[in-house]
Amino acid sequence: MTIAENVAQVRENMNRAALAAGRDPKEILLLAATKMNDADRVRQAIAAGVDLCGENRVQEMLEKQAQGAYEGAPLHFIGHLQRNKVKQVVGLAALIHGVDSRELLETISRTAAARALTQDVLLEVNIGEEASKSGFRPEEIPEALSFAASLPAIRVRGLMAIPPICRFPEENRPFFLRMKQLFIDNGEKKYDNIRMDFLSMGMSGDYTEAIACGANLIRVGSGIFGPRHY
């Protein structure tokens, strides 16, 4: 299948999952996870109607951005961001997913302030509380939001999570539901620079389950571009 056909299929699946959950499909954003796909393939995905593009690797993002790969769709950074790479991402990515520590929040804020801009971010939740993964533990989110509220050039736009690897998509439902509750509970807190706009969860193998549980931003890579060949 072509990239355009894959995007159409993903959209159909998204619509079906949203309607089954009593939701408006238009409230859910489709992000194309473009890792290991060249500029031409990224352009094909944008032409096919994805809402956003997301890159995992800083160098790859810079190379494709220089080639005009993302014209027509906002660019997000969705990989693990090292603090020494922050300067290359702040101001280029409309939204940085996966902000997983107070130290990273501080570095992003300091860099953004030096450039007289405000950087939008999502806090990463280690929803499975896995030792091998980064992110804030669920119970740390209120404190992390309070800390982010004290920073001058950060705007938190929501939460993101990648649940544990499972054999069947439905096994992730408890993690997705817990994320939804965190999203609701922490959305009630009133800070000037925190808005719970995005609940980013769900990837190629489980995005319909994530939508059923409340995700409004899903990240799809192989479902659009086909399997990656490492």
Largest sheet: 8 strands, parallel
Based on Cα principal axes, name the global outline.
Answer: globular
Question: In percent terms, what proportion of residues is strand?
Answer: 15-25%
List low-confidence stretches: none
What's the CATH H-level homologous superfamily? Alanine racemase
**Span between termini:** 20 Å
Structural class: alpha/beta
CATH architecture: Alpha-Beta Barrel
Lateral arrangement of strands in the main beta sheet: 7-6-5-4-3-2-1-8
Number of strands: 8
3D structure, described in words:
The protein is of the alpha/beta class. The chain has a single domain, classed as Alanine racemase (TIM Barrel, Alpha-Beta Barrel). It has helices at 3-20, 39-48, 58-66, 86-89, 102-114, 141-149, 173-187, 207-212, 222-225; strands at 29-33, 52-55, 75-77, 95-99, 119-124, 154-160, 194-200, 217-220. Helix 1 crosses helix 2 (39-48).
Mind sketching the topology for me?
Layout: H1 3-20, E1 29-33, H2 39-48, E2 52-55, H3 58-66, E3 75-77, H4 86-89, E4 95-99, H5 102-114, E5 119-124, H6 141-149, E6 154-160, H7 173-187, E7 194-200, H8 207-212, E8 217-220, H9 222-225
Parallel strand pairs: 1-2, 1-8, 2-3, 3-4, 4-5, 5-6, 6-7
Task: Using brief descriptors, characterize the structure shown.
230 residues; TIM Barrel; eight-stranded parallel sheet; 18% strand; globular
Compose a concise summary of this entry:
Helix content is 38%, strand content 18%.
